[in-house]
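Response to reviewer comment R2.3. The reviewers asked that we include at least one raw input/output pair. We reproduce the pair for Gliding motility protein GldC here without editing.
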Amino acid sequence: MKKSEIIIEVGLDDNNVPETLHWSAKDGGVERQETKAAILSVWDLDNKEALRIDLWTKEMPMDDMKIFFHQMFASMASTYERATSEKDVAQKIRLFAEEFAVASGIRD
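Raw output as returned:
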């Protein structure tokens, strides 16, 4: 079986707060690319629950974090639609993403 790795490297300060984040996915042509935030979710089949790692550096601007969340919500709608073919539910997620954008002040 072929294997692939995605690596997230976290540089921590003395209080274990992320200062730097880099990620690599050699099969995708990404080598130690700097980022300011990462959210990784995995499905725990045994417990039927989502597990996640949320990381962001001290330098992640709040306005960028709001845009990051908006884009994640929008992309989750597309992923949900591809996975389930439930267009109506995906549209509700898209609507929420737009409501979030207005509420968070990134859109009028």
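Residues 61-108 form one domain. The radius of gyration is 16 Å. Further pairs are available on request from the corresponding author.
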